[in-house]
Amino acid sequence: MNPFSEIERLDMMMAACVAAVAEHFSHIAICDILEPPHQWFDAALARQLALHLLISAFEVPKRRVVAMQRRSREAINRGLRTIDSRRACPVFDQQYETMVERAQTLLAEQFALAA
Questions:
Q1: Using alpha carbons only, what angle is made at residue 109 by residues 25 and 100, rounded to the nearest 5 degrees?
Q2: How far apart are CA 57 and CA 36, in angstroms?
Q3: Angle at the Cα of 96 (from 92 to 101), degrees rounded to 5?
Q4: Which of 6, 40, 46, 105 has the CA that lies 20 to 30 A from 55?
Q5: Cα separation values, 89 from 1, 74, 84, 114, Å
Q6: Is 35 helix (H, G, I), strand (E, B) or coil?
Q7: pLDDT digits over 48-78, tens only?
Q8: What sections of 1-115 are H helices per DSSP?
């Protein structure tokens, strides 16, 4: 990995976020998290979680995520609001924090391997 390539860094961050979420949604294939089939609400929630982690935990600007995901700003913002409202539930929030920690660990491991 080229540490000076923004695209490669963003890809690694997204991969870490998706992998962390996939551990909690083990019944959903990673490809279905990235592109949820129509009416798969759990897969859509998993994608929203991954994008929320990317924006909140890794502080990736929303405009970059919009461009990266080729989604509208409104779709990204709707997903963020969904996760923000779900985090009001203590059990959900605890699992969210577990995903944040796991994504950060996975990213650190990827950077260590790339160095």
A1: 40
A2: 22
A3: 150
A4: 40
A5: 38, 24, 10, 37
A6: coil
A7: 999 999 999 999 999 999 988 888 899 999 9
A8: 6-24, 30-34, 41-56, 62-69, 73-86, 90-114
**Taking the chain, what is the end-to-end CA distance rounded to the nearest angstrom?**
8
pTM of the entire structure? 0.91
Delineate the domains of the chain, giving CATH numbers in brackets.
6-110 (1.10.1750.10)
Report d(CA 52, CA 8) in Å as an integer: 19
Residue 4 DSSP one-character state: T
Q: Are 51 and 58 in contact (CB under 8 A)?
A: no
Q: Which two tokens stand for residue 71?
A: 């989604």
State both tokens at 34.
Answer: 């990235």
The amino acid sitting at 92 is F
Q: Between 114 and 12, where is the model more confident?
A: 12
